[in-house]
Each structure stands twice: as C-alpha cells, then as structure tokens.
User: Fold Purine nucleoside phosphorylase from Methanococcus voltae.
Amino acid sequence: MIGIIGGTGIAGLLKNGEEKIVKNKYGEAKVLIDENNGVVLLSRHGLNHSTPPHKINYLANMYALKQLDVKRILSLNAVGSLKVEIEPSSFLVANDFIEFTKVRKSTFYEGEDGKVAHVNMLDPFCSDLRGILKGILDKRQYGYNEGTYVCTEGPRFETIAEINMYKHWGHVVGMTAYPEVSLAKELEMCYCSLCNISNYCSGIKDSDLTVDEVLDTVKSMEAKIVNVVDDFINYKFGERTCPCKDVMKNAFI
Assistant:
C-alpha cells in the first residue's frame, strides 16, 4: 500500500475510494482507501481544515497507515521559502529537517512498556523515494530544489527575527512534516516530502504575508501536485532495499 498525506484537493484521484475510520491505541484516523490501486489518502487537517498543526494526532495517523500495511508515504507540505531564489509556485524535495516544535508527541516509545528507542535519522527522508520523486519532477519539467525543512509549532506565522535565524539553517519553513517523518521512521515506513512553495517567509521579500496569499498559490499549483501524486501512485515500485525497512533493529536500549 502507498500512503498519501495531504489536503482534500487530491481526493479526486480515488474514483473508487472508500472512507474508513481506523482506530488504534493512539486514537483514530479518517482515511480514503482505494483497495484496487493500493492507495490510502489521509488528510492531516481534516476534511474542513479544522485541525491546527499542533493539534493533529500524528501518532494515530501514522499508526493507522502502518495498520493498513502502507510501506511508502508521499507527504504533501505547503511551505514558506527562506531563500529569494526558491520562488513561490515551485517545489522543494526535503532531504533533512530541523524542528522547533514544543507540545507534540513525537515518538511511539515513551518508556511505559519498558522500551526506549533512539532511531537513526541519518537519512530522515527516504533516499530511494526522494530519487523517484525527483525523477517524476524532472520528467514533468517542474522546477524544484532540494533542501532542509524547518518545522515550527504554528499555527501562527513566524516573526521576522525567527526567519532571520532559520534562513541560516534551512531552505523552507512548514508546520507539519515533523513528527510525521520521525514517526514513519520508527514504524519502518519510507517517507518523502514534496513541498510546494506557497509564499516567501516574513521579511524575505517586502510584502505582508497573508493566508489568502498562501491559499491562492496552493490552488494555482493544484494541477501540478495532482500530476505528481498520480505519477507516484502509478510508479512501478519493486522490493524495498533502503535502510528504512530495518532501521529499528539497533534502535533499542
């Protein structure tokens, strides 16, 4: 099974998608499942975008994908650019991350059952999936960069002072890729992130950042995003050979 995490704009890809509530010990996740094509769609904010980034039940969502036998995940992330040369309406393939979250649960191993794990994050975004994603973007001739995703708590936008700090460390800022990326690793699922650049971050350009600007840009990129997702779903995947599938073997104390 392939997992697609994103917004409601891609739901139309599943012509025969069946809505399902997947319950587990962390909560429940609402998904759309296309059994024939082996695809699970998960809208992290809910169908009406009613769940803010810091309130998303990441553990329930990721565990639900594992329960559904998902092996590979494509995450769609709207982000702000920290670099003038990384322009809105382009894409970025995340290859690393720095996180500044505060209240999110970010591991399945809290120690209650006697297990403590230190997962290896040498390659947080699966290198095999990144290669496939870049190949799709190249074939489509969609402009993209690679770089580091800085994850903030949200739901507010960042201050100019924060952006001045982040721009020395990363390429884009978003609010949702973490802890998805680390939880996927703990569940030994391959995870990659296609970031669509919706805006420049505060202070990068001389303009006020508004929600309307973000939504308008995301809407304008929707057709391209759907094309990439469609190509990813129809890619002929073979057996997994990347480290993701065995990363927890040496993670436990």
